[in-house]
Amino acid sequence: MVDAGALATELAIHDVFVINDLEANAYGIPALAPEDFVTLNPGAPDAAGNAAIIAAGTGLGEAGLYWDGHTHHPFASEGGHTNFGAEDALEGELLQWLRTQFQFGHVSWERLVSGPGLLNIYRFLRDTHRHDEPAWLADEMRTGDPSAVISRVAQSGKSTLCVQALDLFVGLYGSEAGNLALKMMAIRRRVRRRRHRTEEPRQARGRHVHATIRRQRPHAKAPRGDAGQSDRERQDGAPRRRSLSRYCAPGWRS
């Protein structure tokens, strides 16, 4: 554990403050250049108001930035540990399956929207027999970082199981990003994507991965998949590709 008082003594510094990692990221936002962002859906260019940051990595980090009329003030959050809420039949089945995997049956958003969360989603789809796991894929996952393998193979299109896992992952990421925007009353919003060391460059990644950042109630809500696709089709495991620009709420940048 990092102790501010011990650090102050050790380093002979009068004031030492230990802050949350996403809060630190929020303080760093003004230092970023325009080329450091990718616009998911353009909103009002000069919108003034609260902002939010969400970042999936080894866990799910969330933070807010309060707008006082002149500047933003970052503050920490542990929103990634809030209860996951299923939105349709497939997500409901996923929730029930996850409750059997963890002590006390508590399933937070971090259990799904994170590197380990991608693996959880993959295991659910595999164990409920949505698609078969080929032997070569099982071998790669045993010898490497499983979540990184799932992401890479999904982007290559070589495994329907990986494609569906990543597709469900980004949909859930979008759902929680929309939830966070509502909780923070965020007019200016940011998604910070913690890049895995084995991921492809942004340009290549953008050609293959389709994300969903959706408006949540009371705003208009975009469909989860292709028009007319039912929950039964999702239960049968049909992979869906999501359009980046169609389903993103205005003002989202990554």
Structural class: alpha/beta
Q: What is the CATH topology descriptor?
A: Hexokinase, domain 1
Strand arrangement within the widest β-sheet reads 1-6-5-2-3-4
Count, helices: 9
> What is the correct CATH architecture?
3-Layer(aba) Sandwich
Strand segment tally: 6
Radius of gyration: 19 Å
Topology as a string of helices (H) and strands (E): HHEEEEHHHHHEHHE
| Main beta sheet | 6 strands, mixed
Distance between the termini: 31 Å
Mean pLDDT: 78
CATH class: Alpha Beta
Question: What does this protein look like?
Answer:
The protein has helices spanning 4-11, 21-28, 89-99, 115-127, 135-143, 146-156, 160-184, 202-208, 231-235, and strands at 39-41, 50-56, 60-67, 72-77, 186-191, 252-253. The protein has 254 residues and is α/β, with parallel strands linked by helices. It has a single domain, classed as Hexokinase, domain 1 (3-Layer(aba) Sandwich), CATH 3.40.367. Strand 3 (60-67) and strand 4 form a beta hairpin. The radius of gyration is 19 Å and the shape is globular. Residues 194-252 have low confidence and may be disordered.
Q: Could you provide a short overview of the structure?
A:
This protein is of the alpha/beta class. Helix content is 38%, strand content 13%. The chain has a six-stranded mixed β-sheet, sandwiched between helices.
Write the layout of secondary structure elements.
Elements: H1 4-11, H2 21-28, E1 39-41, E2 50-56, E3 60-67, E4 72-77, H3 89-99, H4 115-127, H5 135-143, H6 146-156, H7 160-184, E5 186-191, H8 202-208, H9 231-235, E6 252-253
Parallel strand pairs: 2-5, 5-6
Antiparallel strand pairs: 1-6, 2-3, 3-4
